[in-house]
């Protein structure tokens, strides 16, 4: 369980998070909000990559401040992954496996799933954007940790890969994991999410199921419910 209390974060003059309270249990949680609303900042606070100015984050009832071992419990897909461009896909996989000296699953299944075997000897700078994203996803799903944080996982994926990703997320959910997903693709969010957390102006504007969101906004479709919040708040 991830528990967040009164989380604040400011960058210079911009107060990004203004008191976030959240309790995140197993299942798929979509963190939504307009561009610049602080979704990535929240994810990075959980990962210890950004230090909050105020507030606490606990994982399984242990505060994470100044800790680092807990990060072994988290698999993270960053919004933009920056790996050295001149190494090949198989060199990158080996490097990440060596760096994260943890229990890993056999990558063969993931290589087959994302049809990456033909690219193993190719350098990263020769890959298309979508293929790079598939490599990033493979690296994320390689360690079978209890918490998964996926920041814009659909970027560049074709429809077939999107279905594979959805199935993979739902399979990981069945294992009882906590999965946080940030995405602007509402059909994708609707297919995978148990709960929607909508951040607006630094606070949690909505926290509930898709059905509750539709009811509270009076909209029949999820996409319209989200659009409704944005329009109503001039976001
Ligand atoms: N390291 C940083 N230094 C300064 N400002 C930052 C930093 N990281 C984020 N910000 C600012 O914080 C705000 C929130 O950014 P964040 O990336 O968390 O938003 P987001 O909701 O993930 O946006 P998007 O949907 O566009 O990905 C933005 O105004 C951004 O410019």
From TrEMBL:
PROSITE patterns: ABC_TRANSPORTER_2. It comes from the Bacteria. One of its GO terms (molecular function) is ATP hydrolysis activity. Residues 2-226 form the ABC transporter domain. Belongs to the ABC transporter superfamily. This is Copper ABC transporter ATP-binding protein. Signal peptide: none annotated. The lineage of its organism: Bacteria, Pseudomonadati, Bacteroidota, Flavobacteriia, Flavobacteriales. Keywords: ATP-binding, Nodulation, Nucleotide-binding, Transport. InterPro entries: AAA+_ATPase, ABC_transporter-like_ATP-bd, ABC_transporter_ATP-binding, P-loop_NTPase. SMART domains: AAA (SM00382). It comes from Myroides marinus.
């Amino acid at each position: 369980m991830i528990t967040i209390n009164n989380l604040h974060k400011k960058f210079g003059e911009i107060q990004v998070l203004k008191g976030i309270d959240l309790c995140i249990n197993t299942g798929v949680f979509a963190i939504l909000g307009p561009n610049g609303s602080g979704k990535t900042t929240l994810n990075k606070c959980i990962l210890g990559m950004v230090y909050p100015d105020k507030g606490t984050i606990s994982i399984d009832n242990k505060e994470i401040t100044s800790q680092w071992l807990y990060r072994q419990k988290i698999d993270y897909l960053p919004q933009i992954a920056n790996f050295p461009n001149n190494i090949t896909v198989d060199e990158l996989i080996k490097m990440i496996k060596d760096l994260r000296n943890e229990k890993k699953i056999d990558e063969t299944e993931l290589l087959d799933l994302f049809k990456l075997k033909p690219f193993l000897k190719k350098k990263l700078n020769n890959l298309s954007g979508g293929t790079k994203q598939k490599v990033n996803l493979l690296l994320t799903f390689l360690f079978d940790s209890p918490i998964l944080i996926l920041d814009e996982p659909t970027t560049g994926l074709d429809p077939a890969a999107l279905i594979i990703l959805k199935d993979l997320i739902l399979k990981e959910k069945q294992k009882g994991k906590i999965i946080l997903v940030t995405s602007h693709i509402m059909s994708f969010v609707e297919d995978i999410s148990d709960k929607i957390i909508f951040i607006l102006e630094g606070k949690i504007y909505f926290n509930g199921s898709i059905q509750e969101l539709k009811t509270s906004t009076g909209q029949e479709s999820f996409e319209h419910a989200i659009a409704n919040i944005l329009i109503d708040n001039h976001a």
